[in-house]
Amino acid sequence: MDLATIGGLIAGVFFIVAAILQDKGNLADFGQLASVMITFGGTFSATLISFPLADFINSVKSVTLIFRNKQLNEGEIIRKIIELSNIARKEGLLALEEAAESIDDEFMKKGILLIVDGTDPELVRNILETEIIFVEGRHKYVQGFWNKVGEYGPAWGMIGTLIGLIKMLQNMNDPSTIGPSMSVALLTTLYGSVLANFLALPIANKMKVISEAEILLKEVAIEGLLSIQAGENPRVIEEKLKAFLAPRLRDEISEDDAQEGENNA
Protein backbone atom coordinates (compact mmCIF):
# COMPACT_ATOMS: atom_id res chain seq x y z
CA MET A 1 0.00 0.00 0.00
CA ASP A 2 1.17 3.50 -0.79
CA LEU A 3 1.55 5.25 2.57
CA ALA A 4 1.45 8.73 1.02
CA THR A 5 -2.05 8.12 -0.36
CA ILE A 6 -3.32 6.56 2.87
CA GLY A 7 -1.71 9.28 5.00
CA GLY A 8 -3.09 12.05 2.80
CA LEU A 9 -6.64 10.70 2.98
CA ILE A 10 -6.54 10.23 6.75
CA ALA A 11 -4.98 13.67 7.31
CA GLY A 12 -7.50 15.36 5.00
CA VAL A 13 -10.50 13.76 6.74
CA PHE A 14 -9.01 14.59 10.15
CA PHE A 15 -8.51 18.27 9.37
CA ILE A 16 -12.00 18.66 7.88
CA VAL A 17 -13.68 16.92 10.83
CA ALA A 18 -11.55 18.77 13.37
CA ALA A 19 -12.40 22.11 11.76
CA ILE A 20 -16.13 21.29 11.87
CA LEU A 21 -16.00 20.25 15.53
CA GLN A 22 -14.25 23.45 16.59
CA ASP A 23 -16.38 25.76 18.77
CA LYS A 24 -18.96 23.06 19.56
CA GLY A 25 -19.68 22.30 15.90
CA ASN A 26 -21.83 19.31 14.96
CA LEU A 27 -20.92 16.86 12.21
CA ALA A 28 -24.59 16.10 11.60
CA ASP A 29 -25.08 19.67 10.40
CA PHE A 30 -22.73 18.94 7.48
CA GLY A 31 -24.43 15.77 6.31
CA GLN A 32 -27.35 16.26 3.96
CA LEU A 33 -28.62 13.67 1.51
CA ALA A 34 -30.01 16.19 -0.97
CA SER A 35 -26.63 17.93 -1.28
CA VAL A 36 -24.84 14.60 -1.71
CA MET A 37 -27.27 13.56 -4.45
CA ILE A 38 -26.90 16.82 -6.36
CA THR A 39 -23.11 17.06 -6.13
CA PHE A 40 -21.84 13.48 -6.30
CA GLY A 41 -24.75 12.10 -8.33
CA GLY A 42 -24.68 15.01 -10.74
CA THR A 43 -20.90 14.92 -11.17
CA PHE A 44 -20.72 11.23 -11.99
CA SER A 45 -23.81 11.45 -14.21
CA ALA A 46 -22.15 14.20 -16.25
CA THR A 47 -18.92 12.18 -16.40
CA LEU A 48 -20.89 9.15 -17.56
CA ILE A 49 -22.25 11.25 -20.43
CA SER A 50 -18.71 12.34 -21.32
CA PHE A 51 -17.15 8.86 -21.62
CA PRO A 52 -18.16 5.50 -23.14
CA LEU A 53 -19.50 3.08 -20.50
CA ALA A 54 -16.52 0.69 -20.70
CA ASP A 55 -14.05 3.56 -20.31
CA PHE A 56 -16.09 4.99 -17.43
CA ILE A 57 -15.99 1.67 -15.56
CA ASN A 58 -12.29 1.10 -16.25
CA SER A 59 -11.42 4.63 -15.18
CA VAL A 60 -13.34 4.29 -11.90
CA LYS A 61 -11.55 0.98 -11.24
CA SER A 62 -8.21 2.65 -11.94
CA VAL A 63 -8.46 4.50 -8.63
CA THR A 64 -6.92 1.41 -6.99
CA LEU A 65 -3.61 2.28 -8.71
CA ILE A 66 -2.97 5.18 -6.34
CA PHE A 67 -3.05 2.81 -3.37
CA ARG A 68 -0.46 0.41 -4.80
CA ASN A 69 3.11 0.83 -3.72
CA LYS A 70 4.63 -0.39 -6.96
CA GLN A 71 8.37 -0.10 -6.75
CA LEU A 72 9.95 1.33 -9.90
CA ASN A 73 13.63 0.86 -9.31
CA GLU A 74 15.74 2.73 -11.85
CA GLY A 75 18.95 1.28 -10.42
CA GLU A 76 17.67 -2.26 -10.86
CA ILE A 77 16.80 -1.61 -14.50
CA ILE A 78 20.26 -0.17 -15.21
CA ARG A 79 21.99 -3.07 -13.47
CA LYS A 80 19.93 -5.56 -15.46
CA ILE A 81 20.94 -3.83 -18.71
CA ILE A 82 24.60 -3.87 -17.68
CA GLU A 83 24.26 -7.58 -16.91
CA LEU A 84 22.74 -8.17 -20.34
CA SER A 85 25.46 -6.15 -22.04
CA ASN A 86 28.14 -8.29 -20.37
CA ILE A 87 26.38 -11.43 -21.60
CA ALA A 88 26.12 -10.03 -25.12
CA ARG A 89 29.82 -9.08 -25.22
CA LYS A 90 30.97 -12.47 -23.96
CA GLU A 91 28.51 -14.83 -25.66
CA GLY A 92 26.91 -12.81 -28.45
CA LEU A 93 23.45 -11.31 -28.92
CA LEU A 94 21.78 -14.70 -29.35
CA ALA A 95 22.64 -15.55 -25.73
CA LEU A 96 20.22 -12.79 -24.64
CA GLU A 97 17.23 -14.97 -25.54
CA GLU A 98 17.90 -17.27 -22.60
CA ALA A 99 18.58 -14.31 -20.30
CA ALA A 100 15.25 -12.74 -21.33
CA GLU A 101 13.34 -15.66 -19.79
CA SER A 102 14.26 -14.49 -16.30
CA ILE A 103 12.98 -10.93 -16.89
CA ASP A 104 9.46 -10.08 -15.69
CA ASP A 105 9.26 -6.75 -17.52
CA GLU A 106 7.35 -7.53 -20.73
CA PHE A 107 8.51 -4.33 -22.40
CA MET A 108 12.19 -5.11 -21.91
CA LYS A 109 11.66 -8.74 -22.84
CA LYS A 110 10.04 -7.66 -26.10
CA GLY A 111 13.01 -5.43 -26.91
CA ILE A 112 15.50 -8.20 -26.21
CA LEU A 113 13.67 -10.65 -28.45
CA LEU A 114 13.59 -8.08 -31.27
CA ILE A 115 17.36 -7.72 -30.94
CA VAL A 116 17.87 -11.49 -30.85
CA ASP A 117 15.80 -11.77 -34.03
CA GLY A 118 18.25 -9.44 -35.76
CA THR A 119 15.78 -6.57 -36.19
CA ASP A 120 17.22 -3.35 -37.54
CA PRO A 121 18.10 -0.98 -34.62
CA GLU A 122 16.01 1.84 -36.04
CA LEU A 123 13.02 -0.49 -36.33
CA VAL A 124 13.56 -1.70 -32.75
CA ARG A 125 13.48 1.90 -31.57
CA ASN A 126 10.36 2.67 -33.60
CA ILE A 127 8.48 -0.36 -32.29
CA LEU A 128 9.33 0.31 -28.65
CA GLU A 129 8.74 4.05 -28.87
CA THR A 130 5.36 3.42 -30.51
CA GLU A 131 4.44 1.20 -27.58
CA ILE A 132 5.45 3.98 -25.19
CA ILE A 133 3.28 6.47 -27.08
CA PHE A 134 0.22 4.26 -26.75
CA VAL A 135 0.91 3.44 -23.09
CA GLU A 136 1.27 7.15 -22.37
CA GLY A 137 -1.94 7.83 -24.30
CA ARG A 138 -3.90 5.31 -22.23
CA HIS A 139 -2.52 6.79 -19.03
CA LYS A 140 -3.49 10.33 -20.10
CA TYR A 141 -7.00 9.15 -20.98
CA VAL A 142 -7.55 7.89 -17.43
CA GLN A 143 -5.98 11.04 -15.98
CA GLY A 144 -8.38 13.04 -18.17
CA PHE A 145 -11.32 11.16 -16.66
CA TRP A 146 -10.40 12.23 -13.14
CA ASN A 147 -9.59 15.76 -14.27
CA LYS A 148 -13.08 15.89 -15.78
CA VAL A 149 -14.58 14.75 -12.44
CA GLY A 150 -12.57 17.56 -10.85
CA GLU A 151 -14.09 20.06 -13.29
CA TYR A 152 -17.67 18.85 -12.89
CA GLY A 153 -17.59 18.68 -9.05
CA PRO A 154 -17.51 22.45 -8.36
CA ALA A 155 -19.89 23.06 -11.28
CA TRP A 156 -22.48 20.73 -9.77
CA GLY A 157 -21.86 22.35 -6.41
CA MET A 158 -22.86 25.63 -8.02
CA ILE A 159 -25.96 24.00 -9.55
CA GLY A 160 -26.93 22.82 -6.07
CA THR A 161 -26.41 26.33 -4.75
CA LEU A 162 -28.75 27.72 -7.37
CA ILE A 163 -31.37 25.06 -6.58
CA GLY A 164 -31.19 25.94 -2.91
CA LEU A 165 -31.49 29.67 -3.58
CA ILE A 166 -34.45 29.19 -5.91
CA LYS A 167 -36.26 27.10 -3.29
CA MET A 168 -35.51 29.74 -0.70
CA LEU A 169 -36.87 32.58 -2.85
CA GLN A 170 -40.01 30.58 -3.69
CA ASN A 171 -40.78 30.17 0.00
CA MET A 172 -39.83 33.53 1.42
CA ASN A 173 -43.27 33.73 3.07
CA ASP A 174 -42.34 30.72 5.21
CA PRO A 175 -39.26 31.63 7.30
CA SER A 176 -38.86 28.02 8.48
CA THR A 177 -37.77 26.90 4.98
CA ILE A 178 -35.10 29.56 4.51
CA GLY A 179 -32.54 27.82 6.72
CA PRO A 180 -32.81 24.34 5.09
CA SER A 181 -32.75 25.82 1.60
CA MET A 182 -29.66 27.89 2.36
CA SER A 183 -28.07 24.82 3.90
CA VAL A 184 -28.60 22.82 0.68
CA ALA A 185 -27.17 25.73 -1.30
CA LEU A 186 -23.95 26.07 0.69
CA LEU A 187 -23.34 22.37 1.36
CA THR A 188 -23.41 21.54 -2.34
CA THR A 189 -20.70 24.13 -2.91
CA LEU A 190 -18.68 22.59 -0.08
CA TYR A 191 -19.18 19.04 -1.37
CA GLY A 192 -18.23 20.06 -4.89
CA SER A 193 -15.00 21.66 -3.72
CA VAL A 194 -14.10 18.66 -1.56
CA LEU A 195 -14.86 16.22 -4.38
CA ALA A 196 -12.64 18.15 -6.78
CA ASN A 197 -9.76 19.24 -4.56
CA PHE A 198 -9.56 16.38 -2.08
CA LEU A 199 -10.32 13.45 -4.37
CA ALA A 200 -10.56 13.87 -8.15
CA LEU A 201 -7.66 16.24 -8.89
CA PRO A 202 -5.22 14.59 -6.43
CA ILE A 203 -6.08 11.19 -7.95
CA ALA A 204 -5.38 12.53 -11.46
CA ASN A 205 -2.08 14.04 -10.34
CA LYS A 206 -0.96 10.85 -8.55
CA MET A 207 -1.66 8.88 -11.71
CA LYS A 208 0.37 11.39 -13.71
CA VAL A 209 3.34 10.97 -11.35
CA ILE A 210 3.13 7.17 -11.56
CA SER A 211 2.84 7.31 -15.35
CA GLU A 212 5.86 9.60 -15.76
CA ALA A 213 8.00 7.29 -13.64
CA GLU A 214 6.94 4.25 -15.69
CA ILE A 215 7.58 6.02 -19.01
CA LEU A 216 11.04 7.11 -17.83
CA LEU A 217 11.96 3.50 -17.08
CA LYS A 218 10.83 2.41 -20.53
CA GLU A 219 12.94 5.15 -22.16
CA VAL A 220 15.94 4.02 -20.12
CA ALA A 221 15.30 0.46 -21.27
CA ILE A 222 15.18 1.49 -24.94
CA GLU A 223 18.48 3.34 -24.80
CA GLY A 224 20.10 0.49 -22.89
CA LEU A 225 18.91 -2.20 -25.27
CA LEU A 226 19.98 -0.25 -28.35
CA SER A 227 23.40 0.34 -26.78
CA ILE A 228 23.72 -3.41 -26.21
CA GLN A 229 22.75 -4.04 -29.82
CA ALA A 230 25.42 -1.52 -30.91
CA GLY A 231 28.04 -3.41 -28.89
CA GLU A 232 28.91 -0.52 -26.59
CA ASN A 233 31.07 -0.96 -23.49
CA PRO A 234 29.00 -1.77 -20.34
CA ARG A 235 30.65 1.07 -18.44
CA VAL A 236 29.74 3.53 -21.18
CA ILE A 237 26.17 2.21 -21.20
CA GLU A 238 25.88 2.71 -17.45
CA GLU A 239 27.04 6.32 -17.64
CA LYS A 240 24.72 6.97 -20.58
CA LEU A 241 21.71 5.59 -18.72
CA LYS A 242 22.51 7.51 -15.55
CA ALA A 243 22.05 10.69 -17.56
CA PHE A 244 18.29 9.96 -17.54
CA LEU A 245 18.15 10.08 -13.76
CA ALA A 246 18.07 12.89 -11.22
CA PRO A 247 21.39 13.51 -9.37
CA ARG A 248 19.99 11.94 -6.20
CA LEU A 249 19.23 8.67 -8.00
CA ARG A 250 22.64 8.65 -9.73
CA ASP A 251 24.33 8.99 -6.33
CA GLU A 252 22.24 6.14 -4.92
CA ILE A 253 23.27 3.86 -7.78
CA SER A 254 26.93 4.80 -7.36
CA GLU A 255 26.72 4.12 -3.63
CA ASP A 256 25.08 0.75 -4.28
CA ASP A 257 27.80 -0.14 -6.79
CA ALA A 258 30.49 0.81 -4.27
CA GLN A 259 28.80 -1.26 -1.57
CA GLU A 260 28.51 -4.21 -3.92
CA GLY A 261 32.20 -3.88 -4.78
CA GLU A 262 33.14 -3.96 -1.11
CA ASN A 263 30.99 -7.03 -0.52
CA ASN A 264 32.60 -8.85 -3.43
CA ALA A 265 36.14 -7.89 -2.29
From TrEMBL:
It is a multi-pass membrane protein. The chain crosses the membrane at residues 6-21, 33-54, 178-201. One of its GO terms (cellular component) is plasma membrane. It comes from Vallitalea pronyensis. Belongs to the MotA family. This is MotA/TolQ/ExbB proton channel family protein. Its main location: membrane. It is found in: Cell membrane. Keywords: Cell membrane, Membrane, Transmembrane, Transmembrane helix, Transport. Pfam families: MotA_ExbB (PF01618).
